[in-house]
Design brief:
seven-stranded mixed sheet, globular, about 25% helix
Length: about 230
């Protein structure tokens, strides 16, 4: 990345662009997007520049085709990890696409991004008694990434409770880390997993506790005009 330039991002499993929306608010620049769903692409294209959006199965992508980036994100399918799903784990036909994302990072070699962000449902923590989550982080460690594991709830930012697990990986190795695992982003289910698996390469980013949200659904929902057609 050139000094003073915004971080370049490749978003895999891009969907309709919600991750892009957040990243752009923080000054990032999305230079590559991918998802298999044509319908999601059409919605994405209504809201963003979709010239760099490749509507294709991730299994058809290769590291050589990914542009130079500083960040890669992967909100991969939750179907096989969700408590409401079939619990096939990373061997399932959909959630196994995470392994394709990891393959692409490996194929990028020295060009792989400085940081990665994975996001999925809380069932990822318990999938196959934690073996799937362990496997994912171990693979990232193998590629050189120290990882933090967080559990965040949308209710801290919007009037909806939706918990998600995030894995943040960084190639910048941090020694003698300080910071507690008892903060808001490391609730017991996450902190316990990290403490049990001391052989993994961990990193603690110690996020600040968000301020109290003072909005509610009625304050942000768009109201119908009496003349609107329903």
């Amino acid at each position: 990345m050139l000094k003073g330039q915004p971080p370049r991002v490749a978003e895999f499993f891009a969907g309709i662009g919600l991750v892009r929306m957040a990243l752009e608010q923080e000054g990032c620049r999305v230079v590559f997007s991918n998802d298999i769903s044509r319908k999601k692409y059409e919605i994405y294209a209504e809201n963003f520049d979709a010239s760099n959006y490749l509507c294709s199965d991730i299994r058809n992508l290769h590291g050589i085709s990914i542009p130079d980036i500083e960040i890669a994100t992967a909100s991969f399918p939750c179907t096989d990890l969700s408590l409401a799903g079939n619990r096939a784990g990373l061997e399932g036909s959909e959630s196994s696409t995470l392994l394709e994302f990891l393959r692409i990072l490996k194929e990028m070699g020295q060009r792989k991004p400085a940081m990665v962000m994975l996001e999925n449902v809380t069932g990822f923590v318990s999938s196959y008694q934690g073996k799937d989550l362990y496997r994912a982080i171990k693979e990232l460690n193998y590629l050189g990434y120290q990882c933090d594991l967080m559990l965040l709830d949308a209710k801290w930012f919007v009037p909806q409770s939706r918990q998600r697990v995030f894995i943040i990986g960084s190639l910048e190795v941090q020694q003698n880390q300080s910071g507690s695992l008892d903060g808001f982003s490391h609730p017991p289910v996450v902190a316990d997993f990290m403490r049990r698996n001391v052989d993994l390469e961990w990193r603690n980013f110690s996020l600040p506790t968000p301020s109290i949200r003072r909005t509610n659904l009625s304050s942000i929902v768009e109201k119908f005009n009496p003349s609107d057609e329903i």
